[in-house]
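User: Fold this; tokens only.

Assistant: Input:
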Amino acid sequence: MTSWFDLCEGWTLTAEPHEGTLPGPAAALGAVPATVPGCVHTDLLDQGLIEDPYLDDNEDRSGWIGRTDWRYARSLADLVPERAPEVAAAERVDLVCEGLDTVAVVRVGGREVGRTENAHRSYRFDVTRALAEGGPDPALEVDLASPYRYAEERRKRLGPLPGAYDEPYQYIRKMACNFGWDWGPTVVTSGIWRPVRLHAWSTARLASVRPLVTVTDDGSLGRVSAHVRVERTGPGSEAPLTLTATVAGARATATLAAGETEAVLDLVVSEPALWWPRGHGDQARYDLGVELSSGAADGRGLDSWRRRIGFRSVAVRSAPDDEGTGFAVRVNGRDVLVRGANWIPDDAFPSRIGRDRYRERIDQARDAGINLLRVWGGGIYESEDFYELCSERGVLVWQDFLFACAAYPEDAATAAEVEAEAREAVVRLAPHASLAVWCGNNENLWGHEDWGWKERLEGRAWGAGYYLDLLPRVVAELDPTRPYWPGSPWSGDAGTHPNAAEHGTMHLWDVWNEADYTVYRDHRPRFAAEFGYQAPPTHATLRASVTDDPLTPVSPGVLHHQKAVDGNGKLARGLKAHFGDREWGYDDWHYLTQVNQARALTVGIEHFRSTWPYCTGTVMWQLNDCWPVTSWAAVDGAGRRKPLWYALRRVYADRVVTVQPVPDGLVVVLGNDTDEEWVTEVTLARRSTDTGRALAASAHEVRVAPRGALRVPVPTVVAEPSEPAGEVVTVDGAGERAWWFFLRDLDLDYRKPEFDAQTRVEGADLRVTVRARVLLRDLVLNVDRLDPGAAADSALVTLLPGESHTFTVPGGAGLDGAAVTTPPVLRCVNDVLANDR
């Protein structure tokens, strides 16, 4: 018998004094209705007791929340044994807390039943006696200590450790970016951030099921080894138990003798349909079920477990070669060209992220051609919904363990928490077909080498024991079917610099921090695991989060939503390099910085992809945001797609054509990430930007091998311009046109934008057709300026004279046609840089 009771209703929240005092704002609070899952910030926000931390600089006025002790409480009167037959009949009653944030004392009926110090773990407390003896109306209370006080006290006790930010995030096991990041707000949370339930059970329960899924090299056999651990209620429950596992028609049983608690059930499936990442095959999955029943004659059911699994093999191919040490993600024996993005928590308050929001975000990734998301180490282990949806949609997951940009203490208490957390995470996530790589940390190995940590540490432990010993041992023991990589970046060898370009994974941050984005072409990484460029969010998102009137690039609210060190200065230097040095008004600044971001990632990804199979993947920083902010994201904090998203859709397409500079001229590179040979004829032309007429051209029949790349030298007559400011190279016949401009925008001979625009309504949609009379560069239709819910289907469109393009705005039938076709809604580079002629 097993019964579950949801405890997510009926909570109240109160601020609790510490040593007799409360922070000023907390002193005015009484009991506040609370939502579980949730956190103090969202509860106070829901009751109108704080202003939205995402608006203007309100974030700064909520800092007291993280320095206050809090109590969540609710009645358990309906669940005392005398009122709940299922509880009365159970031999054991457990309180199951899936996520407490973070340092908690839990009481039932005034009796302490447990303590927690880790938001990344779940906890199960036996409350049988406390519930029975707590009277007719026992209270469930969760007392949460100030995370700041806890972390700062540990820092004082253990000694200061270097990190990227002057915050104590490495001293507490909670979401590190709670403490602020160069794209995130400082909103140090407390709360019950994942569900709380009561579990009444008897005899035994399934404590964990850990399926290890493998396939033979030829794919003819799939194997599942289901490692099952049960928990019995106690000495009075030593009877035999039966375990049964089923998948795809295969069945296995095992008997647990009296006192036994573990078994392995092996199942073999002939000719299983394999699970593949998107673009490589279908995402076949099968229902895996495990049943626990009494070993007695009646065989009554005690507990059950269900998940959907996929048959596939995953590995990292990392071996020395003539040029260094490669890094390739392999699925079912095939190297996958990784077209990836980094993933951060999609909200600074993760309890607000539901399945629908995960689905929207993962669909945005998939629709941009992304086949891998890297769950970054400063965030969280995501919910089941995230991994389940990635498996459904064929998006691989690279999972960092939760360490980022800091030296971490290795004292016994922290190490014990890290091991318990890692063991739970590995077991919980093991069933998901999408999970492909375990990674020890984000940038800590690199930080120790290059960021001055060694001198500050003076020989003290800093986390290497986790990444090079504890975590690989946990993965080897619990999930030997998946590869473990000690960190990102990592060269594959402790004796080699962790961010060496020719070895393993590399992060590239000279571009953005120091250099123009064209410098991407000077790099030859084996696998580019992080690189990116900033831009503001869409106008609708920025306008909704900043009340400045007017908006300017340096208005207070805009600057508050820029968290990177000298972020606006770097944006300005990027504009200067390509568009000239001037005081930009808001409209021009907003448009051009977004164009620059899209151009930067296009240059980097096209270059890295052009070196396939030397470089086997790119994981751009970053897909998403956790709030409305100027950042590296392709999808902003309100879920709106920036122009970068449309650029990713081009460069992450299954088949791409790009023009790349080489020492002796130009080369066209065609990439074919499909299973079919690509046969086509491409036309290379040098054209006048005034007329669009071809000044020189050549045609080439090409055959690009499946999963291959082909390089076609551009003939000198095409590659060398007579008038660089007024000529361009185009490549047609291979899908979307590829372009090569010989000079920076500020040196090009742009004409004033001249075009014919027509709008027409088709059902609920609006079609906007633009026919160019001069070359128009990077057309964008910013319809969110007219309707925050509207978005066009395309962006960054370049047209030669006489060419046309039709934008579609789903649901945009009611938009003002005249406003849609004029600035600042319809924009192109010509609007800013056109010569007066």
